[in-house]
Amino acid sequence: MKIQKFTEGPDSLIQQVEQQWLQPLYDYVATEFSKTWLPSHDHTHHLRVWTFAKDLAEALQREGCQFSKTQLEQLIIAVFFHDTGLTRTLDASHGKESREICKKFLEKHASMPAEGLQEILDAVEKHDDKSYPQRIPHGKKLPVDLLTMLAVCDDLDAFGAIGVFRYLEIYVRRGIAMESLAGKAIENLEKRFINLSSHYGKLEGFIQEQEKRCRYTLDFFRALDKQIRQDHGLWAEKGLVAVVNILLEKVLHKKIHFARFPENPGSDAPGKKYFQDLQIELSLYSF
Fold this sequence. Notes:
CATH class of the largest domain: Mainly Alpha
Strand content: under 5%
CATH architecture of the largest domain: Orthogonal Bundle
Largest sheet: none
Order of helices and strands: HHHHHHHHHHH
Number of domains: 2
Radius of gyration: 19 Å
Number of strands: 0
Helix content: 55-70%
Number of helices: 11
CATH topology of the largest domain: Hypothetical protein af1432
Structural class: mainly alpha
């Protein structure tokens, strides 16, 4: 199945890079995940992160930042391998495993200088450091290094209706209790947005769009936490608790990919709205 190309224009460097790398990378990563059931972080996640990476690169270009074809090749390769290590471990240190999978691919397929390959591998390994050790003072140049762009664009997939599902699946799979899941998701979301703003606050239009997406996910988990407290657990058959139960039942137990849900499996207004929003988002990443 061919992947939809998102970038227009025959002279676009991004389009040239996609024509060379997108389908082979997508197919390779899909094969890596073929025996691992983790819809929130599988090959479709990597495709979404690449879409965010393109949006960010184009926003940076409008601010005068320039990218070579080699830099964009490094970016697309790093994007498509950053979470492949989750096929071997769900631990937060999966970047090390991702590095090894990426290294195996590069040994057979890449044709760039050795230092370029090393930069890819380092970014893949270090992308998931959620302590966010790097901060840039206000007024400094916009960062265009591979690690920063990869880490930020990976964060962006945690926003929106898809982001809601991502938190639910990966946190449950990591053994986080549902009673504390919403609070942990809220804390994590706030850190992700602060990190985004600290690096790319000058990109006003880009930041405004991502803030809306982040707010959606924050509002969901705040409302979920409130309902859990009011209803004393996850037994309610209405509201966002029902949404959570539907997602976990269909995905974790019945192994139905969330991209294949019926449009409105929710039984009340909050449920219907969430699943409508999910379908709208998924349509943006159609193949």
